[in-house]
UniProtKB/TrEMBL annotation:
Pfam families: Thioredoxin
Domain Thioredoxin: 1-135
Protein name (database record): Thioredoxin domain-containing protein
Top-rank taxon: Eukaryota
Source organism (scientific name): Brassica oleracea
Length: 135
């Protein structure tokens, strides 16, 4: 599978698009594995904070898939903030750490540090910031 994130990080749930990968975060271990592996990398991590009830999140989903396919050099991680309540407060803590209080929220991380964000359903701004930080 080449540089497929799911094979590198033992990430069991991922949605592949034509040229990219969205990693669906399903556990604390999975999140920690992905996040820790990205700390030593200059690769862009885009964390997509979402929820099943969020209308703007649902509206952005097809655009996000399209964007992911355009930027295979970035890693996209989707965090459903409500779903992770089932796993305890850990993922809610992740959302809190990155101040993902308004959804959708896209947080850009490099080497373990937040470098930028997009809040709301703003696909053009999302593309602009990926372009800005992908190198």
């Amino acid at each position: 599978m080449g540089s497929n994130v799911s094979s590198v990080h033992d990430v069991p749930s991922s949605a592949e698009t034509k040229n990219g990968l969205v990693v669906e975060m399903e556990s604390r271990r999975q999140w920690r594995s992905l996040f820790d592996s990205m700390k030593g990398s200059n690769k862009l991590l885009v964390i997509d904070f979402t929820a099943a009830w969020c209308g703007p999140c649902k509206a952005m989903e097809p655009r996000v898939k399209e964007i992911v396919s355009r930027y295979p050099e970035a890693v996209f991680a989707r965090v459903d903030v409500d779903r992770f309540m089932l796993f305890g407060m850990y993922m809610q803590d992740v959302a809190g750490t990155y101040r993902a209080n308004t959804l959708p929220a896209f947080v850009f991380v490099k080497r373990g540090e937040e470098i930028d964000r997009v809040v709301g359903a703003k696909p053009d701004e999302l593309v602009y910031k990926i372009e800005k930080h992908r190198v």
